[in-house]
């Protein structure tokens, strides 16, 4: 079918359809579900409206504006959304099978449980007449902007997203069998629990991706950038991605931990003349026991420390930035000048912990303890004494955080 075969509704018809649909969303008995299937609506601006459940099957919506719209459970089967604007739109459980999304802007959109699988659309012109194929093949999302979009639990099997921008996107538990992400920017993407069977990531950038629990079977990672992975993510995929790019193994790790700490103590005692500062990057140190210990100026950058015990430890100017600190025990610890920026402290126990800045010698100010952009969900602060700290861009609701003032 050509664009000439699509219906072009008049402004009055369009206003009536949208108006009765808006009424239907509030009072179904009084309104009517909107139907704009096989309509030519390029460039239409419906930004900010509640259009959930509306039907756009086979419609031409190239360059349309749906920014901030509620499009939950809408039907875009086989629709043309090339170049459309859907920033921050809600598309939960929307049907986008066989849709064309080339150059579409979906930054920050919510596509939880959306269906973007391949699809074939038929339009029957009359009884007993063969249908005409509108769309035959995969949902196309080449050069599409999915930056920080939520695609968790989405159905993406067979979709083509070559060159799409997926940095920071949430794709946890998505089904991506036979999908094509060649050349995509997927920096920091959350793929935990996703089905990646026969998925193509050739030359994709997956720096810092979260990949624990993914299903891998004949998945292609040729030329993919898998640097910056946390140890548990690295262990999940390295055996299956032999022709991908990885970071070199960490110099300091669990195996040489005692020797590194011994050299660090010499470095401290000699004011840097002997030994060497302990710097651990992307090392798997999960479950280690630091309880009651004195830790000064140690660097644990992007390390896996889940389940470690820092109970009653004295922690001065230690860098935990970007590390996995889930279920870590800090109960009763004294933390001064620590850095937890971007760390994951989900379920961490900070009960009775004292968090304070670290005064610099000679009255030269102080180093604040920073939790900027850290994850603190389900963490415990009961009885904690927080004298000062940077908690900007950090959600504290439900943590028992001892707010002052």
UniProtKB/TrEMBL annotation:
SUPFAM superfamilies linked: Pentapeptide repeat-like
One family name in Pfam for this protein: Pentapeptide
Domain of life (superkingdom): Bacteria
PANTHER family membership: BTB_POZ DOMAIN-CONTAINING PROTEIN KCTD9
Lineage, highest ranks first: Bacteria, Pseudomonadati, Pseudomonadota, Alphaproteobacteria, Rhodospirillales
Organism whose genome encodes this protein: Hypericibacter terrae
Protein name: Pentapeptide repeat-containing protein
UniProt xrefs under InterPro entries: 5peptide_repeat, Pentapeptide-BTB/POZ_domain
């Amino acid at each position: 079918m050509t664009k000439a075969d699509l219906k072009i509704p008049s402004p009055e018809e369009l206003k009536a359809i949208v108006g009765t649909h808006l009424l239907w969303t509030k009072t179904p008995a009084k309104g009517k579900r909107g139907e704009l299937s096989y309509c030519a609506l390029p460039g239409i601006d419906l930004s900010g409206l509640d259009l959930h459940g509306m039907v756009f099957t086979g419609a031409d919506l190239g360059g349309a504006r749906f920014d901030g719209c509620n499009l939950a459970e809408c039907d875009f089967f086989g629709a043309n959304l090339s170049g459309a604007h859907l920033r921050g739109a809600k598309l939960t459980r929307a049907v986008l099978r066989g849709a064309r999304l080339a150059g579409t802007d979906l930054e920050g959109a919510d596509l939880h449980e959306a269906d973007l699988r391949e699809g074939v659309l038929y339009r029957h012109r009359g009884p007993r007449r063969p249908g005409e194929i509108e769309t035959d093949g995969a949902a196309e999302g080449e050069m599409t902007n999915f930056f920080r979009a939520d695609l968790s639990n989405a159905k993406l099997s067979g979709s083509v997203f070559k060159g799409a921008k997926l940095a920071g996107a949430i794709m946890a538990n998505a089904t991506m069998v036979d999908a094509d992400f060649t050349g995509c920017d997927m920096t920091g993407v959350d793929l935990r629990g996703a089905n990646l069977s026969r998925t193509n990531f050739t030359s994709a950038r997956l720096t810092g991706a979260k990949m624990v629990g993914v299903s891998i079977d004949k998945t292609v990672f040729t030329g993919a950038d898998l640097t910056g992975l946390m140890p548990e993510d690295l262990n999940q995929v390295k055996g299956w991605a032999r022709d991908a790019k990885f970071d070199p193994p960490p110099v300091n790790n669990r195996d040489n931990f005692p020797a590194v700490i011994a050299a660090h103590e010499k470095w401290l005692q000699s004011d840097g003349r002997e030994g060497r500062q302990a710097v651990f990057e992307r090392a798997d140190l999960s479950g280690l026991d630091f309880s009651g210990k004195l830790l000064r100026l140690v660097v644990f950058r992007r390390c896996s420390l889940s389940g470690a015990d820092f109970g009653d430890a004295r922690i001065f100017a230690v860098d935990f930035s970007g590390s996995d600190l889930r279920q870590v025990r800090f109960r009763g610890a004294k933390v001064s000048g620590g850095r937890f920026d971007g760390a994951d402290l989900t379920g961490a126990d900070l009960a009775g912990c004292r968090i304070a800045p670290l005064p610099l010698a000679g009255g030269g100010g102080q180093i604040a303890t920073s939790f900027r952009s850290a994850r603190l969900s389900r963490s415990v602060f009961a009885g904690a004494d927080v004298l000062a700290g940077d908690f900007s861009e950090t959600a504290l609701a439900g943590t028992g955080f001892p707010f002052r003032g």
